[in-house]
Each structure stands twice: as structure tokens, then as C-alpha cells.
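Ticket reopened. Same input as before:
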Amino acid sequence: MIIPAHHGGDAPARMPSPPAIAIHQVSHFFGSNQVLNHVNLSVPEGTILALLGPSGCGKSTLLKMLAGLLHPASGQISFDGEIVASGKLSLPPEKRNLGMAFQDYALWPHMTVRQNVAFPLQMRGIRGAVQHEKVMAALERVGLADFVSRRPSELSGGQQQRVALARAIVAEPRILLFDEPLSNLDRDLRESLCEEMATLLRQLHTTAVYVTHDQHEARTLAHRIARMDKGAIASIDPTDPSVVSPFVA
Ligand code: ADP
Ligand code: MG
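Engineering reply: fixed in the latest deploy. New output:
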């Protein structure tokens, strides 16, 4: 029997897909203060990484690099294998297909809930009935479908953060970034909203980086916890499955 020469017997090795987020040797300075020191970190698609660490260790700075709000002094950031920041190349935030929610909610005070949530769709040119459907679906997910006509000042802190969450997810971005979104809320509300967010993020299967200094939040929400200290990643561990996380297989 003649075996064709190219039939080596083994099937060609399938290339593993690149991580949703890859941070390679990223450093940054504010003046002479080095706030990020050769950070390496990757986040597989569909997983949630909690970035945990003391105040001032560089968590928000690193998140801003992912968002495109700051540019690294050196190093490289890729999303799905596509470089978004390296050397002089910097993809602007609106081209990175992200959703973000921060500690201070950052809702536009003059807009209604519906207009706030619709904004990322408006930016992407999604209007009319499709926009309306997506806005209502996002608001239903966070339990605020009845509040479309209110303005942020007419909502509680927890409700405002839910609106910010709806706005982050409405356009189904490839990556979600959170910077201590629950830290302005009182303890009870923080715990219940944390559970709700854990359920929501599990349903969405979106890749997410969740900055917090709260260990309990990190364990409830994340698949993995990266601990940061003085501008560097000190350790990366899976969350303890015996604690809370419904995520860990
Ligand atoms: P974290 O989010 O972990 O609390 P940050 O990333 O906000 O920490 O800050 C890291 C360090 O960088 C801190 O020492 C902070 O004071 C400093 N820093 C942050 N933003 C700026 C800025 N715009 N200008 C100068 N220093 C800054
Ligand atoms: Mg911070």
C-alpha cells in the first residue's frame, strides 16, 4: 500500500485560540513613580478574572490600559490575538468593543435611564426598534424595566449601579471591565448585588476583569483571582470552589 508522503499519521495539531485578553510586560509611570512593573496576565475567553490588591497598587491603572484610557509606557496588550496597544499603536476605547462600569456609576445626569442605557448602541449606529429591544432586554436583566423614564437623581445608589451595569452589557461587548462597581454601596446591598452580578455574568459568558479590594466579592464572582502588589502581579489562583463560586468547574 502506498501511503502519501504528507500522511505522517498524526492529525495536524490544532492551534489553541489566543486568550481574550493578553497583557505582556506592561509597565507604566506617573512622573518618576513606576505604578506598573512588567505586568504579564492573560484572561481566557468567557472567564472572569478578579484583580485584587491594596489601594494604590495599580489596579485602576491596569484597567484603564485595557480600556484604552491610558497607554502603557512599554509592553503590549492584545484582545483575541489582535494588538490593541503596543509602541505607538493604540486602538481608541470606542474601537475596543468593551463595556465598563465604575465605582461612581458615571451616568449622564441629564439623560433618562433609557437614554443612558441606549448610549453604547447609539455610538454603534444601532437605532429604532432594535435599539429599543436591546435596551429593554438589558434593563430587564437588571430588574429595572419599569424605570426607563427616570433620571439618575431619582434612583437609589444600587439602582444607579444597575443602570450602569445594563449600559455595560447592552451592546454585548466582547470584554467587560469593572472597577470596584459595588464599593460605594452599603454592605447588605453590596452582597445582594454581588450575587446578582455573579448570576448575570455567568449567563452572559463574557470575558471580564473585575477590580476589587474585597476578597468575598472576588471569590463570589470570579473564576480566577490575580493578586496585585506594588504594580506587579503577585499570584494568580483559581477561586476556592468550597467557598461560594458557582463558576468553578
Ligand atoms: P488602585 O486602583 O490599585 O488603588 P491606581 O491604579 O489608582 O491604584 O494608582 C496606582 C498609583 O498610581 C497610586 O500611587 C496613585 O497615586 C498613582 N496614580 C494614579 N493615577 C495617577 C495620575 N493620574 N497621576 C499621578 N499618579 C497617579
Ligand atoms: Mg482603583
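Confidence is low (pLDDT under 50) at residues 242-249. The pocket of magnesium ion (ligand 2) is lined by residues 59-60, 179 (CB under 6 Å). Please confirm and we'll close it.
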